[in-house]
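Homework help board

Subject: predicted structure for assignment chain

Our instructor gave us this sequence and asked us to write out the predicted structure in token form, then describe one feature. I got the tokens but I'm not sure how to describe them. Can anyone check?
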Amino acid sequence: MSSETENSEQSSRVLAKWLIGGLVIGASVMGFQIFQQKKKKKRPIRVYMDGCFDMMHYGHCNALRQARALGDQLVVGVVSDAEIIANKGPPVTPLNERMIMVSAVKWVDEVISDAPYAITENFMRKLFDEYNIDYIIHGDDPCILPDGSDAYALAKKVGRYKQIKRTEGVSSTDIVGRMLLCVRERSTGDSHNHSSLQRQFSHGHSPKSEAGGSGSETRISHFLPTSRRIVQFSNGKGPGPDARVVYMDGAFDLFHAGHVEILRLARGLGDFLLVGIHTDQTVSSKRGAHRPIMNLHERSLSVLACRYVDEVIIGAPLGVSKDTITTFNISLVVHGTVAEDNDFQKERDNPYAVPISMGIFELLESPLDITTSTIIRRIVSNHEAFQKRNEKKGESERRYYEDKAFVSGD
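My token output:
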């Protein structure tokens, strides 16, 4: 064999070894990357947030949205009635209703019932070991126990605590205060005309509440609606070309478990649920100058946070017109049997006359006998207890706003 041929064969063997070695290394690297990806997928980051979620509103929902953004799965603990009574005073909504509300928030993956008000050593171990929680989340407002200690001190101590930004302009204390103010105005005859009340609710005036003779300040809405917040709450997707669009409208004031359950039924009748939120002026004309308790943008965000809702019309007209049906390609218009405006069939200007004439209207049997007036009656019936609770909470909120510092990310 010539030296030239021998050198050629030797070069071929070296090249083959090099190629095989490269393939082996490449396969090893690729295998390691796949293993790492599988490892990441196998162990999602799980975060935990707890709360009373009494008189649940868009502020609660925004907190849950922020918490969910810090992990892959959000587990939420709902504090028991007994724990709320011991630490804050009587809850407005019982545990079963609060569970319905929290479970319906679209950023929530799992719910724990009867969670403790404070993170104890035993419960924290349970979260880490049984629920595989990586981080415990709370807002930047302090949660102080009756003995003056921090409810999240243990989580902070072990380095498993993360903080989110509290939503400006709303709290359960604030909403209860609005209702107490309305009760006071009705009972004293200090009625505001329609436009005056709406200005208060829209611009955050702070009239003095004389309910219970305390003279404590009751704050009206300080919410500053932004397009960014609406985008954050929106699904950002429209219905498909062949989707069955279901439409339901209403005030949806003080968004409650009754609203959630009827929306769940409505969503089950189609592929896309569009909800019309009536203007403050429309609600006032139907239910009196002291309503709605929550303004249009506050009500819209609460509904948008519900997992059964795909889109909302902010400021929907009272009557469902042919143009509305055509514009949104609505296949079915529904209304619940339990509602405060259920005498529409007797009205000369029936808001559902058009969908009824088209054969696309359906009256749904409401699963729960709860209305906004039900919630207000609960406040009125236990007026003194809620007034005392508000005075106590109002002072802690005042301190929070005085000491408040900027927290990035919301």
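Reply (TA_rk): Your tokens look well-formed. For the description, you could write something like this. DSSP finds 16 helices and ten strands in the chain. That's the kind of observation they're looking for.
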